[in-house]
């Protein structure tokens, strides 16, 4: 519509430049609507905004608009951050310096607490494990988007299967995780995932997004299901980035999927117990396997891909965007609209994930009510067999049964047993639980509750 302008506009340089500004805004707005597949209501609102801006241009002239646009750009810079991976703007009120200060302070408090409790860290805890951690970390860090920052991995004495980052330049890894990971490629997948959380600014993005959603009066954002779903989506993104890093550093990209396949056998899914802030184990195994398949062409076993720098900008997972419109020429409004639209889409995606998990929990709990215990049989000191009947109107496949064990102090442990074959409706089936850390005699002194951990219904 604005590509062919009458000759007299070109002589009126102020008006001509103003219309070029609106042209950039209009085209970028239309592009955003198409890419994001927005609802008609949101599209209408965006068109109204563009119309208002056009009126402002015609009434106030080029210089005024440029000044307003520069102000909008400054405002966008204050409340957003350019995603190092995608180039898109994301909500964040903390600059990188503040992120490092806050994140590192949190980890240093943890280290001080470890020291106060008399627990060793790093090489003093386990020299061989720490040297392995540093060696693998250095290779991953070198091919990351934050290779120019000085990072430090921390090994602490904790048996839990976990590692985490707080948005600064530390990665904290539990000794229990190091023992469970079977090779360096699996460790690389975990470290890449944790670096990715900071690269994508997940820690501070979540804080800012929740604050904005609450200020906007979103009831959904107040719910625990929403908060879990928001983190759930961040975990998927961190897996993608981390697996790419591992591949570029010369580690097997399929290692992540092996971790979650093994965790599924060990822990099941707990699909119906609570809202999940991570993808459940079998889903995560599938998702990470699909990512590995996409980045496998970049994998050179044991060697850093010489094209890693270019591949960080453009690869099979994403192509980094650049801001082509400058402040004062439509860049300010573009930055604001891009941020608002991005936050809106993220908000809607989070709501959809929360809804999906709600439906999943309801389905699992409904199925669980009609899976009835018929009997129990002790196998040995640490194992026993349970017989159930499936009284649902549907058959079940990929069945995992679980048991919650609560001791006198209120501490709850969860164990799972995988069921062989499909469970036809009306049929009986068995599963055997094994608990190395508890005896059957001890179990009799505790509260025990069986539940359906995972299953897919079919007719």
Structure description:
The protein is built from 15 helices and 11 strands. It is of the alpha+beta class. The strands form 4 sheets. The protein has a 3-stranded mixed beta sheet with strand order 3-5-4, with helices on both faces.
Radius of gyration: 27 Å
Multimeric state: single chain
Mean pLDDT: 85
Envelope shape: globular
Largest sheet: 3 strands, mixed
Number of helices: 15
Total DSSP E strands: 11
Topology as a string of helices (H) and strands (E)? HHHHEEHHEEEHHHHHHHHEEEEEHE
What is the terminal-to-terminal distance? 55 Å
Low-confidence stretches: 1-12, 18-40
The SS-based structural class is: alpha+beta
Q: What's the arrangement of strands in the largest beta sheet?
A: 3-5-4
Total domain modules: 3
Helix content: 40-55%
Cofactor: Zn(2+)
Domain Peptidase M48: 131-285
Protein name: Peptidase family M48
Keywords: Hydrolase, Metal-binding, Metalloprotease, Protease, Zinc
